[in-house]
Amino acid sequence: MPKQNRPLDGVKVLELGQLIAGPQAGCVLAYFGAEVIKVEPPGHGDAIRSWRKLDSTGTSYWWQSIARNKKSITINLKTEKGRALVRQLIGEVDVVLENFRPGTLEKWGMDPALFKQSHPELIFARVSGYGQTGPRASQPGYASACEAYGGFRYLNGFADRPPVRPNLSLGDTLASMHAVIGILLALFSRANTGRGQVVDVSIFESVFNMMESVVPEYSAEQVIREPSGSTLTGIVPTNTYLCSDGKYVVIGGNGDSIYKRLMIRAGREDLANDVRMANNAGRVQHEEEIDRAIIDWTTQHTADAILEYLKEAEVPSGPIYNVEDMFNDPHYRARGLFESVEYSEGELEIAAIHPRLSDTPGRTDRGGPELGEHTNDVLRAYLSLNDEEISQLRTESVL
């Protein structure tokens, strides 16, 4: 059966840089059909190859996911010949995706402005910690610091404890999604104008984009939203509740009619019909009383029983899953959230990438490439180099 077309078929992307924010954007583009050529340093490649849990070859399982569908070429960017090769490759692609510290590419003679005349259709997506301009632009921008600077860490956690980070590089992934959005917008614009442009994405601004009403509320009333643990300030009830088996469930009963159904199911018709709590504004004033009533109910039943009761009452609720729970859940399987790739020890399941498209869906064709696996093929096809020329470049430690 022939494979379906994908929306980015024919789009050529040159991925520079390493670790997460840029490469995760490249992963999404490759999943939806783009030909992503990843440039790695000879010898060791992208650091993600050796991060976290490793297979028997010393390659991370993460690599099979974040580098899926990509082509790997090795070029030593510390050499002028290596930089010259990359400049030539830039002239042959639609998109350059990079996440070096601002100023690095300019130092290497790859300033986007240099390609405006020779390659006006080029889209240059630049991912950094603090953006390409401004007083912080040159500072190293890891997700941890940028999540704090962008406002997320201040809000995440409990008011009486230090700010908490999730056990993920959330800022990097948010930046990668913004980079994908920016690239797609630039491709759409290019289809109308014939011109490319620079997409400037920063980790801290990607986090800042998630701040919802924080900015207008401060502007209007100088209100600083504070951390609120497992609740959501100004919306009641929505919280995490302990059950009799020691598990927690999340309950979102903040709609007026939903609240009534929740309290009736919890055996508290008095609170369900209390006019003081008929709308969200009133419930906010009585948050402690409402949460105490819900906890009194949930701690008398197992998590599974509570979720079943709430399902019957049509109250939004859910379990708190770890990855083992995800693997064993039939809804995850029915939605196709896992895809398989071959790797050194057999078959590995990795996460599918969403959104789902009905007619041109993305897919995983293969896991992460071997280091430099496609160097010869790419240099032949894109730069018309012959085997002797490629061999000479290897002798000179350019590849």
Could you walk me through the main structural features you see in this protein, from its secondary elements to its overall organization?
Helix 4 (104-107) links the parallel strand 4 and strand 5 (123-128). The protein has 399 residues and is of the alpha/beta class. The protein is built from 18 helices and eleven strands. The protein folds into two domains: 12-210 and 335-395, Rossmann fold, CATH 3.40.50.10540; 238-242 and 248-319, formyl-coa transferase, domain 3, CATH 3.30.1540.10. The chain is elongated, with a radius of gyration of 25 Å.
Summarize the entry for a quick read.
This protein has helices at residues 21-31, 61-66, 80-90, 104-107, 143-149, 152-155, 170-193, 203-208, 214-221, 256-265, 269-272, 280-285, 287-298, 303-312, 323-328, 330-334, 375-383, 387-395, and strands at residues 12-15, 35-40, 71-74, 95-98, 123-128, 198-202, 238-242, 248-252, 317-319, 338-343, 346-351.
CATH class of the largest domain: Alpha Beta
CATH topology grouping of the largest domain: Rossmann fold
**What is the general shape?**
elongated
- Low-pLDDT residue intervals, each spanning 5 or more residues: none
* Overall helicity: 25-40%
Instruction: Give the total of beta strands.
Output: 11
Strand order of the largest sheet: 3-2-1-4-5-6
- SS element count, helices: 18
Quick one: biggest sheet?
6 strands, parallel
Distance between the termini: 38 Å
Mean pLDDT across all residues, rounded? 96
Tell me what portion of residues adopts beta-strand conformation.
5-15%
CATH homologous superfamily caption of the largest domain: Crotonobetainyl-coa:carnitine coa-transferase, domain 1
Elements, N to C (H/E): EHEHEHEHEHHHEHHEEHHHHHEHHEEHH
Structural class: alpha/beta
